[in-house]
Amino acid sequence: MDINQNSFQFLFATTIKALFKQTAKNFEENGLMITPEQNFILKILSQEDSIQSDLADIMKKDKSAVMRHIDQLENLGLVVRVNDSIDRRKKHIVITEDGSEMLKKCEEIINQNTHKNLKNISDEDLAIFKSVLIKLKENAEK
């Protein structure tokens, strides 16, 4: 199989994978035993409590994958499940104080990585890149 390593899809996929691996490695090196995806869940929950299906929709992941992440975060004491006051079948996922602290530590590492990774990239190039990403996402969702 001939793979064009300069193709858009190959470059995009391998860049995303490299960024995730970098983040996961830095989290582990700093004793933060969560994944980048679990960090994203904490980030969402820091803005508002949510139910599992809402998280799955936001993350564009299946509900069972999100449930596994939530289970792990709950086992670490970073989130709790709270019964809905109206519909007892619904469980709200709420970030704990420990979860908020973990999120702060993760954000410090992500900010360091972002600073390192954006080295030698102009503000103009970054703005164009973000604009293209937005258009790609919009086109893919049509």
TrEMBL record:
It holds the Pfam family MarR. Keywords: DNA-binding, Transcription, Transcription regulation. It comes from the Bacteria. SMART domains: HTH_MARR (SM00347). InterPro entries: ArsR-like_HTH (IPR011991), HTH_MarR-typ (IPR000835), Tscrpt_reg_MarR-type_CS (IPR023187), WH-like_DNA-bd_sf (IPR036388), WH_DNA-bd_sf (IPR036390). Residues 1-138 form the HTH marR-type domain. The keyword Transcription applies. PANTHER family: TRANSCRIPTIONAL REGULATOR, MARR (PTHR42756), TRANSCRIPTIONAL REPRESSOR OF EMRAB OPERON (PTHR42756:SF1). This is MarR family transcriptional regulator. It comes from Arcicella aquatica.
